[in-house]
Amino acid sequence: MASRSQFRRRAAEGKLSAGCIALVLASACGAAHAQVATLQDLNSTAQFNFGVASIQSSFLVDGLNQLNSGGLYFGVGAGAESSVSSLGPATLSLYDGTRGVTATFAGAQFTLQLDYRLTGQTIGSGASTLTETVRIINTSGSLLNIRLYSFQDYDLGGTPGNDAVQFASFGGSYFLANQEDPSVALAQSIFAPGANRIESDTTGALLGKLSNGSMDNLNNNGAAGPGDVSWALQWDFSLAPGLSTVVSRTTSLQLQVIPEPTSFALLGLAALGLVFRLRK
Ligand SMILES: [Ca+2]
Ligand SMILES: [Ca+2]
Ligand SMILES: [Ca+2]
């Protein structure tokens, strides 16, 4: 099997279709419905599996994972929430090299396009941005009342227990969340349009709500932590037949660049050595 770089080169020469590039990068070319993709850009890597509820399983910035899991759920009418992976299998296509992936789910009543775009920064900068964009097209013959939920369990700095989150609202909708690790990192998420409802907790109850088989609205608890924070957004909309709507969440991470303890230790030893030389 050719290496990824060989495939990229052949892709650049126009010898591979975009669909096959996606499958190659999923390490499963030839499989009927590869559901995994890895995005990579500069200092950042993110892994996705569109065949399971926990769609995003990692978000590495300068080699350190910041995310436990991320998923997308929906409910129609008064129905219970389901993971969008239940609409699958999805058709995947990568774009802009390894920086973007679009997964298209052809549901019975609507088509859902789930897109992730990764924008890394220079190695060692500790900065990165990931945008999740969802487009829903009503392919049925009747009005659909849809609830869409984006669930995020970031563990900033790779440590789950010491994060806190706070939402900001304006004009009755929620447009921003800041999740912070006190010494290591800040993740700022902005939502467009603003979310109708939100929820944050440190107990895992939120994820249970989205998978308990009954209809739930998020409870608008706008602050949680310190603890193993997770949170979700809920957008409510009515779609006439043939119409579509788009929502997005953009999360910008900034890790503080703190010298490694070993560096401090080496600096200390170097200083001691200097003192000894000066005394001689
Ligand atoms: Ca943390
Ligand atoms: Ca539920
Ligand atoms: Ca967490």
CATH C-level class? Mainly Beta
SSE pattern: HHEEEEEEEEEEEEEEEHEEEH
Reported for the largest beta sheet, the result is: 9 strands, antiparallel
Uncertain parts:
1-31, 263-276
Cross-sheet strand order for the largest sheet = 7-8-9-10-18-14-13-12-16
* Percentage of residues in helical conformation: 10-25%
Secondary-structure class: mainly beta
Radius of gyration: 22 Å
**Strands, count:** 18
- Bound small molecules, which ones? calcium ion
Q: What is CATH's topology name? A: Beta-galactosidase, Chain A, domain 5
The helix tally amounts to 4
Return the average pLDDT rounded to an integer.
Answer: 86
Shape, per Cα inertia axes: globular
